[in-house]
Amino acid sequence: MEYPGVGPELSYYVKEIGRVEIFVATDEEALDAYERLCKLEGIYPSLEATHAFAILDKLVPTLPNDKSKVVVNCSGRGDKDAHIVFNR
Q1: Mapping DSSP to helix (H, G, I), strand (E, B) and coil, where does residue 7 land?
Q2: Residues of the chain whose pLDDT is less than 70?
Q3: CB under 8 Å to 48, separation ≥6 — which residues?
Q4: From the CA atom positions of the chain, what is the Rg in Å?
Q5: CATH class of residue range 8-86
Q6: Which pLDDT tens digit goes with each residue over 19-32?
Q7: Are the CB atoms for 53 and 45 separated by under 8 Å?
Q8: Which of 2, 3, 55 is nearest to 29 (CA)?
Q9: What Gene3D superfamilies does the record point to (predicted)?
Q10: CB neighbourhood size of 31 (10 A)
Q11: Count of C-beta atoms within a 10 Å radius of residue 51
Q12: At 65, phi and psi to the nearest 5?
């Protein structure tokens, strides 16, 4: 997500039962991930998705190697965000 959302359900999952962990990606990290996806995959991802991809460099090394899988939904059109990226 590109913004932290707080509500009763999210609070329950995070604080009460520990089922969800919250990670933070800076705008600079998200823009770096945007450029990396453009180069490696040949796509223009949405900035919302690149915030999730930016977390992977921090998250993946902490996961156990035997059964860990990470899925990032790269939905959305990144061409709508191109003016933000190119004017940085």
Answers
A1: coil
A2: 1-6
A3: 1, 2, 76
A4: 15
A5: alpha beta
A6: 887 888 998 999 99
A7: yes
A8: 55
A9: 3.40.50.1100
A10: 19
A11: 22
A12: -75, -25
Residues 71 and 41 sit within 8 Å (Cβ to Cβ): no
Q: Which residue has the tokens 């329950």?
A: 12
Query: How would you class 36 by CB atoms within 10 Å of its CB: exposed for 0-12, middle for 13-18, buried for 19 or more?
Result: middle
Q: Is 27 helix (H, G, I), strand (E, B) or coil?
A: helix
Return the domain boundaries, the chain: 8-86
Q: Could you write out the DSSP letters of every residue in 34-65? A: HHHHHHHH-----HHHHHHHHHHHHHGGGS-T
- Cα 32 to Cα 40: distance, rounded to the nearest angstrom: 12
